[in-house]
Design a protein that fits this description.
325 residues; alpha/beta; 8 strands
């Protein structure tokens, strides 16, 4: 059973997704619908309007240009495309752009590696929902029967340690922590040692989110990785960057900074329910070629959903089609 299906059935989860993306759908795709109204064909004027809508909706310039070029190629190939077909074409092209995951599309069970726990290192700036994301993943995994350990390696903020402790209790996970100001790498080392001894299935390591000095960030994350590999040779198995979807283009800059500082292998995009900037998921996935693992579409534990690119795009377009009936 995948994480996506654990708490709710597919229909309920899809309804949560559609509700969570409502602001983006109303802001972005209603503009596209209005641009198409009264047009009999896809011409240069309509494509210019579409380009402006996508760019101003935080999809990003490079990704928008790529989408427009794909549509132009289809118009040239098929010679005549009715404007009413534009939504379907957009749906197909955006879906194709989103990075495919190599993993099981129905969820992530994070199986042990060579008898050792699966280790996830979480990175991201403060305020993006990093600790909450860790807590929700831990809660989902423990309810699936996994034994989860959390490492409070963001030792620069007492609030981060306290918040993670609360989430560990709520999720039924074990937590390893030290005093504020302790060496983050030491916390990571202790967490992995405890997790191996305790027979854990999954370890999730929180890290500090300071971006004021990229060199310090890079050195700190490298040190944590090196120390973890002394306990489990191939750890961490995944480095997940958490981004706040509501920050739009700022999320692009954060992704750029962290991908330069360390090897990021997956993304979690939070707070999509409170923003009209959900298009940022499309641009970031395309530009950085990093698969999106999770998206946050609400406050509840099950509102952190495993990202499914087709269901995401369908949710963005669904309301338009229903509105035409």
């Amino acid at each position: 059973m995948g994480l996506f299906d654990f708490f709710k059935n597919k229909k309920e989860a899809q309804e949560d997704l559609e509700k969570g993306l409502e602001k983006t759908k109303e802001s972005v795709f209603s503009k596209i619908t209005r641009a198409v109204v009264g047009k009999s064909k896809v011409d240069d004027e309509l494509l210019d309007e579409l380009e402006e809508i996508l760019i101003t909706s935080d999809v990003g310039v490079d990704t928008t240009v790529k989408i427009i070029k794909r549509i132009e190629a289809r118009v040239a190939r098929d010679k005549y495309i009715n404007a009413s077909e534009l939504n379907d074409i957009l749906r197909e092209e955006i879906t194709a752009l989103l990075e495919e995951r190599e993993d099981n599309p129905d969820g992530f069970d994070y199986e042990k590696k060579d008898g050792n726990p699966f280790v996830i290192m979480i990175v991201g700036v403060n305020g993006v929902g990093k600790t909450t994301t860790i807590g929700k993943i831990a809660a989902q995994l423990t309810r699936m029967g996994k034994k989860v350990y959390l490492g409070a390696a963001d030792t620069f903020r007492a609030a981060a340690i306290e918040q993670l402790t609360i989430w560990a209790e709520r999720a039924g996970a074990k937590i390893v922590k030290q005093e504020m100001g302790s060496d983050p790498a030491s916390v990571a080392f202790d967490t992995l040692k405890s997790a191996v001894a305790g027979g854990a299935d999954v370890v999730i390591i929180d890290t500090a989110g300071r971006l004021h000095n990229k060199i310090n960030l890079m050195n700190e994350l490298t040190k944590i990785r090196n120390v973890m590999s002394k306990v489990i040779p191939d750890a961490p198995h995944e480095v997940m960057l958490v981004l706040d979807g509501s920050t739009g283009q700022n999320a692009f800059e954060q992704a750029k900074q962290f991908t330069q500082a360390t090897k990021v292998t997956s993304l979690a995009v939070t707070k999509l329910d409170g923003t009209a900037k959900g298009g940022v998921v499309i641009g970031i996935s395309d530009q950085f070629k990093i698969p999106v693992r999770y998206i946050g579409v609400g406050e509840g534990i099950d509102h952190l959903q495993v990202f499914n690119r087709r269901e995401f795009v369908n949710a963005l377009f669904k309301g338009k089609e229903e509105g035409k009936k």
